[in-house]
Design goal:
The chain is α+β, with helices and mostly antiparallel strands. It contains eleven helices and 14 strands. The protein binds flavin-adenine dinucleotide.
Length: 284
């Protein structure tokens, strides 16, 4: 439980952090709240030579509205700060998910940027960012790029981020009155991680069908995914129960000591239906 020896530097600015990551040539890693990287280092599953502490960079914190209607959430914003933010309070799926992530320490120290860079296949925020069609803003000494959430999560603990890049912020579509959203999960009680977690956004009801439906699923496959077959079924006029039967279409469902393949697939189906129903109910 003792990490291998490493150097520690506290970055004085984002540019300073980026220069240090670039100089590390793959052997330097950022630390934000330390809730995931420190356990990994203690288990020696991660052995960075240098930890670049970005935790005090005020420029990466906070929530703001952008002129194009998007809402930017700084990478260093903690779960607790998101929970207390007035703008984010309008997102039903965040209000559902945030109070149940980890424990008080995790919510006080864990950051949204750290969560998605770590990319645990069972973490909650990726499903939410997928359902919202969010964008990840990544910066390196080479410049800035915007990565759609749908292209960000590539495998278990694998993202499209380069070793010398930092996430600076997440961009969410502005809250709209004509869509409802919800998050539903069955969690492994000891850790709080989802056995199956589902974020749903629905809207634009007309006559007998939903014009808009977006569903992100975590905890089920090798990485969080958009349940496109569910979305298409809902838009095609299927009931939520019929659509939910497609929750795991095309996905290799994970099996572990907490849930075997069959049980996890069943939980996913039930949670998709519940998330869709709860999202629709928020539209009144
Ligand atoms: C007991 C416990 C329970 C938990 N329960 C849950 C749960 O129920 N649901 C859930 O979703 N999660 C859960 N988590 C995970 C938690 O959400 C993450 O540990 C936390 O959000 C990671 O953020 P951090 O700031 O602590 O990241 P760190 O641990 O500091 O960093 C994690 C990784 O991200 C990288 N990184 C950090 N910030 C950036 C950045 N801005 N740009 C690029 N790379 C970056 C680091 O280099 C490192 O590789 C739990 C964790 C613990 C310890």
């Amino acid at each position: 439980m003792i990490p291998a020896a490493f150097d520690y530097v506290r970055a004085t600015s984002v540019d300073d952090a980026l220069a240090r990551l670039a100089a590390g040539d793959g052997s330097a890693k950022a630390i934000a709240g330390g809730q995931s990287i420190l356990p990994l280092m203690k288990l020696r599953l991660a052995r960075p030579e240098t930890l670049v502490d970005i935790g005090r960079l005020a420029e990466l914190k906070g929530v703001r509205r952008l002129s194009d209607g998007l809402v930017a959430v700084g990478a260093l914003t903690t779960y607790d700060e998101m929970l207390r933010d007035e703008v984010l309070g309008h997102y039903g799926l965040l209000a559902d998910a945030l109070p149940n992530i980890g424990d008080v320490q995790v919510r006080n120290l864990g950051t949204i940027g750290g969560s998605i860079a770590h990319a645990d296949p069972a973490s909650d925020m990726p499903a939410i960012l997928l359902a919202l069609d969010a964008e990840v803003v990544a910066r390196s000494a080479r410049g800035e790029r915007i990565i759609p959430a749908t292209a960000f999560f590539q495998g278990a603990f694998v993202t499209s981020l380069d070793a010398d890049e930092l996430i600076t912020e997440l961009r969410l579509p502005g809250g709209r009155d004509d869509v409802g959203s919800a998050y539903r999960a069955i969690e492994q009680p000891a850790s709080g991680y989802s056995i199956a977690g589902v974020a749903a956004v629905v809207g634009a009801w007309s006559v007998d069908r939903w014009g808009f439906c977006s569903v992100g699923v975590t905890g089920v496959g090798e990485h969080p995914y958009r349940a496109s077959a569910v979305e298409a079924a809902v838009r095609g006029g299927a009931s939520f129960e019929e659509a939910a039967a497609h929750a795991c279409d095309g996905v290799s469902v994970a099996s572990d000591i907490h849930a075997d393949r069959e049980y996890r697939a069943h939980v996913a189906t039930v949670q998709v239906r519940r998330a869709l129903e709860a999202a629709a109910a928020r539209l009144g």
